[in-house]
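Q: Hi! First time asking for a complex rather than a single chain. Here are the components, and I think there are two in total. Is that enough to go on?
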Amino acid sequence: MTDVILEKVGKTYPNGYQAIPSVDLSIEEGEFIVLVGPSGCGKSTLLRMVAGLESISTGELRIRGERMNEKEPAERDIAMVFQNYALYPHMSVYDNMAYGLKNRGIAKNLIEEKVSDVAKMLGLTELLQRKPRQLSGGQRQRVAMGRAMVRDPKVFLFDEPLSNLDAKLRVQMRVEIRQLQRKLGTTTLYVTHDQVEAMTLADRLVVLNKGKAEQIGTPMDLYNKPATPFVAAFIGSPSMNLIDATLTEQGVKISEALTLPLSHQHRGDIVWGIRPEHLEVSDEQNGDFALRIQAVESLGAETLIHGKIETESANGESMVVRLSGPHLPDVNSLMWLTAPMSHWHLFDAKTQQRL
Amino acid sequence: MIENRPWLTFASHATLLLGIGLVALPVWMALVASTHPASAFGVGHIPLWFGDAGAETWGTVLFEEAGNGVDTPVWFMMLNSLIMALGITFGKIVISLLSAYAIVFFRFPCRNLCFWIIFMTLMLPVEVRIVPTYEVVANLDLLNSYTGLTLPLIASATATFLFRQCFLSIPGELVEAARIDGAGPWRFFFDILLPLSRTNIAALFVILFIYGWNQYLWPLLITTDDAYYTLVMSIKRMLSVTDGDIAWNQIMATTLLAMLPPVAVVIGMQKLFVKGLVDSEK
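A: Yes, that's all I need. Here is the structure of the assembled complex.
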């Protein structure tokens, strides 16, 4: 059953600035959707439009078939977790969680039951009488989630909820959020700028760029078949090597001296891409091209090698290679690489679409 | 930084002691004077230690009449002063809370204009607009009434401004969280805003109570009935005796009594007052 539908939803501010031209998205019940993109891409605006905190300029938002454009946030049956948690500083954890229920006129004993259930689920039972300022960042985060869960809403909205936590806690909370969402089965819309968070959490990802949905799909779809160079560069870390090239009869012409053979009916300027993890070390006979190594980053489990494609002229294209395990090549030495054709990504330079 | 310079410690303590002495001496003298008979002042020297007429003077002043042509006892005037001061304080706080709430959280046409108009009333204290204000109050038939004493002094740009600053510092996400939690404008005001501006309210209470208590010109103008005389204005009336001696002992006792409530408020609310001006728990 389709739970949330965004139909040509757009946002234009009164000063004429168009933050979001038009976004179409339909979300299945229980699905975990992550809106991801660089800052200023309109992902938060989109989320706030679903929440009802921003008005919708054009298009329609429907939750369970009901038009929501004109409804107050409280009437939409959504719950939101904010970046800075937005806990009421003067209320205890219990009151923070109970406040929304109180305002809805729910009986006291029922509120108590619900709050203590959720507190138990999140491990907050001991903290119920504390004030938010007596809690650590992770605990505040949990309270903010508890406040959303207590209401048992149709849709959860998360606005970069993990960005204020330290790296270790972030990973832990990420896993926890995913588990909770699976358990509760609540439709979730989650905003983040962190592609790792996006990849690990999402059932489906929406990559936004300048207010436009560049691609919507499962994390693996986006990884394997990015629709545009933007998505290709955004998903995956380190990001994909993208090189401006020309498609000719001989193949992909990267520079005057280097052409990778390919038979393709398309002609003209293209963007040629390959992920760092798909490049393979080779030798002078079998290699496609050589890389002049500029820097080596050893992370133990993997090694990132930054370099430039060796050409006669000095300005070869930069590339990153990701090798598993420790490697210690000399800086400034040459490294021969092959780029397996099955991992190539070709995009039209003009339309920015995948070929 | 720890400094160990004995002469510096000595100098700073001496300065402080001198300051305390300067401030406390008149109060001490008033207290001593109130325990001597009225005639003690005509002799030409100022007594510095308690006399023996204390009980008598204080009893008369407090419960019978303040003396020097003021027939009402001091406790009654204190009550009047208290009603006026509290009326002004609470009136100001309520009005400015509401106006700051409107200006900060609601979008309506001419919102900024409204704010600046309120702000401009800073330039128009009672003393400046006293004649027209008197006429308005007189036309409304409010002379000699508590309403007349308090109402014209209630509008306050300072308090509105202070609350506006306080409200502006409340993060937008908190407002949005309350909206999602289904808190309407009134709920939000009472459940979130009021508790968060608690310390500011306390600080303002102290300032405004003293302001209200010390009102002199306005009560002097609009009260002609003994039943509405306030303490501060009566002290001046007690001095203007046409014939006979001025009962300085009674005046001193009344003055001391007039000082007590503001002092009590400051001491009682010191902690909250400082907190309200210095930090915010948001």
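A: Chain B has two domains: 1-33, 54-278. Let me know if you'd like any chain examined more closely.
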